[in-house]
Specification:
By secondary structure, the chain is mainly α. Helix content is 45%, strand content 6%. The chain is built from 3 helices and 2 strands. The longest helix is centred in the C-terminal third of the chain and has 18 residues. The protein is globular.
Length: 69
């Protein structure tokens, strides 16, 4: 979790609810889940921008202009 928090901060993204989901920790069937939601629209937009920029530089042909996910 600390690595993800640090990496997001490095690109200017803060997810206020970044934590391990306590309910999923109680399950013996599945692995614990990470809560990534509960951010405002500005944060969601910033995260989208960071991901698009990353896709452009590391996976040519996978940006929104190319119509690829």
């Amino acid at each position: 979790m600390a690595e993800l928090h640090t990496a997001l901060q490095a690109v200017g993204v803060t997810l206020p609810s970044l934590c391990v989901d306590p309910v999923s920790c109680a399950s013996s069937v599945m692995a614990p889940l990470v809560e990534l939601g509960r951010c405002n629209l500005d944060t969601a937009q910033r995260l989208a921008e960071v991901l698009v920029d990353y896709a452009k530089t590391t996976a040519p042909g996978h940006g929104p202009e190319e119509g690829q996910p």
